LL-diaminopimelate aminotransferase (Allisonella histaminiformans), 412 residues
Amino acid sequence: MAFCNEHFLELQGAYLFAEVRKRAEAYKKQHPDADIISLGIGDVTQPLAPAVVEAMTKAVAEMGRMETFRGYGPEQGYMFLRKAIAEGDFKSRGVDIDPSEIFVSDGAKCDTGNMQEIFSDTAIVAVTDPVYPVYVDSNVMAGRGGKFVNGGYERIVYMPCYEECDFKASLPVHDPQIIYLCSPNNPTGTVLNRKDLTQWVRYAKQTGSVIFFDAAYEAFITEDDVPHSIYEIEGAKDVAIEFRSYSKTAGFTGVRCGYCVVPHALKLETKSGEMVSANELWDRRQCTKFNGCSYIVQRGAEAIYTEEGRKQIQATLDIYRNNARVILEGVKEAGLHAIGGTNSPYIWLSVPEGMTSWQFFDFLLDKAGIICTPGSGFGPCGEGYVRLTSFNTPELTRTAVERMKKALKEIK
Ligand code: PLP
């Protein structure tokens, strides 16, 4: 008999978004005529930019000709894209990242979930509460969670984020080795400004911890004081790994492409006190377990960095930004308290008094035909909130907001 990895048995319930989908489907079965609008799962709705489609079409044609056909590509990504990233995402902001520090992948979920593999299985992990569930679950699977007691894993350090502190975490009391930070944040939509990030980089240096900086929503930043990359902070290359995604930036949720930056300066320690390069470990990991993102997709991603591509994706991002504004204004008009939506596609909404997150989820589904994501699914501090997303068409967003306002009037 083969033994299972029992760490998997410590995982709690169904994956949040799967649970949301399951409940919504059950409702649709009972109410087949219900007209439901999803402001729940964070998937995009707008099509790819024409420049991206054109580049991918050209790449497909190349694949169909003997002279230009390509088989396996480099596991780290094609140099044309790594150079475009170094130039377009970093040099343009005064940050010097070498293409050899960039690893192209099929998205940030895999990267944020897999990066923990190059760390010791005894490493202490710190996450914010509420949190994007992938950070926690991937560490639980690897055995860093311990038992689930009183709403949390005993070996994970939770950094509660309360409304009084703008949903920003304080420095942890017990020093962890890995710290997950997400800015702009999923689910709260809040951001870490230059001062906040400087404090985190300083802390990581002092304690020898490594920051996993998830910047999947970087493209939504509108305020000047909010860094787009943690490497805009001096010294961050010694202590941080950054994750980026084209999913929300350029509608790549179904295309699949993202990247992470593992700086050469970042060193990890062996038990015998030797220092090893995190970049080399990740390179070895990727070469063993990953065969690269497709050539066609990487040509599509490269097109985002052209002048035309950049303009086109900004036009799409403006649609989502405007939707976020419409939602934020609408829920405020309905008398609810909400934050986010300014530097983020997410609006973090306080549920009406006396309701839990899941009760409000059921209320919105039943009375307004709206799907949201219950905040409690992101951690105990998410109880009392739901997350709404701006990833819908302007028409459906407006309809959803009107329906929400009407439904909320009824409970007043
Ligand atoms: N990181 C955060 C914070 C996310 O919210 C998401 C997707 O929802 C991801 C990473 C995953 O992105 P990708 O589609 O690139 O895998």
Observations:
- The first helix runs from residue 16 to 30.
- The chain has two domains: 14-43+309-411, 52-305.
- The first strand starts at residue 37 and ends at 38.
